[in-house]
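Morning. Coffee machine broken again, so started the prediction first thing and wrote up yesterday's gels while waiting. Chain of 106 residues, entered below exactly as on the submission form.
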Amino acid sequence: TGAGAPDDEAPALEVLLLRVGEARVAVRAREVREVSPAGSATPLPGAPERVRGLAAVRGALVPVVALREGGGDGAPWWVVVDDGTRAAALEGARVEGLAGADVVDD
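Came back before lunch.
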């Protein structure tokens, strides 16, 4: 097959775009379990300041992690991510949208 043929196309990578303060970050869409209303977290004694505690999300306990120093910015949502080995609820991110990009392997 020649260059540009369907067999040669790189796979598309879909990402969820988040705004954390002034920064714009992307999370692989396949690792986003859900975006859910922020709930309450049970504090963990001795945990770093950014670890807000544990929360039950669909029956599983997950750590709630503040993406901004000093806590969230009042965003009413948690972005729950899971990479297959561990999960966390991210606090302080505002969802901007979903984007796709071609993956280029150098």
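The first strand starts at residue 12 and ends at 20. Going to sketch it on the whiteboard this afternoon.
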